[in-house]
Prior knowledge:
Blueprint lengths: L1 E2 L20 E6 L23 E2 L11 E2 L2 E7 L5 E9 L13 H4 L10 E4 L16 E3 L4 E3 L10 E2 L4 H7 L15 H6 L4 E2 L24 H4 L28 E3 L3 E2 L14 E5 L4 E6 L2 E6 L13 E2 L2 E3 L22 E5 L1
Parallel strand pairs: 9-10
Antiparallel strand pairs: 1-4, 2-3, 2-5, 5-6, 7-19, 8-19, 9-11, 12-18, 13-17, 14-15, 15-16
Amino acid sequence: MAGTIPLSMTQQFDIYGQPLAGGQLYLILAGTVSTPQNGFQDLGLTMPLPNPITLDAAGRIPQFFLADGLIKVRLQDKNGVVQLASDGIQVIGPSSGGGGGGGGLAGDPTQLWQTGDLKARYSTGAHPVPPGGTSPGWVRANGLTIGSASASPSATERGNADCQALFQFLWPFTDLVVSSGRGANAAADWGAGKTIALPDYRGYALGALTDMGNTPVSRLSAAYFGSDGTVLGAVGGVEGRILAQAQLPNIVPTFAGSAVELTVSTGWGGNPFGGQIVTGNISGTQLVSSGGGTGAATGSSFGSHNIDSKGPYTPAGTISSINGSVSQTGLITLGPRKLCTFYLKL
């Protein structure tokens, strides 16, 4: 997004009331001593002006545009005598070229959205350019990179001068990678044509830090969440988890059956005794009864045999506990949600 400051299109005078013909206006990165910041002829920030900007014979400053945020200026006469120096000047809009009468919030979108603000939008793809504007004003929070148009390597989400304010805003957060590593400061890295990675919100739901200036609460413990809940940009939680046996519910299953009768009858040829099995094992020595006497014989001497045995059997009992009494932790339910795209304000 782009805007300007009140010095644009104004006439300047020296201490004697004479037009500041040939004076020079330096545009400087806010908070630095003399690091230049680009000014542009157009709202899309594609046609840079020289820095310093030279005033005309009548002491007028030409129209210029700046990336949203803060800026420092130094105005001096043609001999280098400083006439005005000020830091932390707010770049004002309307950034998209819209707005209207009445002033206030309607005429100054910087009062509604600040660099680094995060918003959800029901759309996909790059943010559209607002009507009448030349810059989309937003980039996706997708983990790709931003930088200047001449950044090397090229920025993968957006490479344009309008990314400067967001670049400087994100630079202090060391979890966001700067190409070729961080230099002395954000202004130096921007001027060196570096890129910076955007926060990556792909597939994540938003959550609040557990402190936010207050005493941390235990609603997102490291043991459950997986990260420190006081760290900006921390990632935690998983979509699902395989349960260990110790995490299974504690159950004690029981069973009960109904009575079963078993009848087996086969021929028992060649039995010298005849009779019925009283007890024994048919694959081992058999105890049989015949009339008033009993005898023993091995199964091999019987050939096929005749068994008649009946009796009810009702199974019942318990199975040992599968698990002890273990607290069920780590069980995850992913609640219903509807997806959109998150954007960061330039």
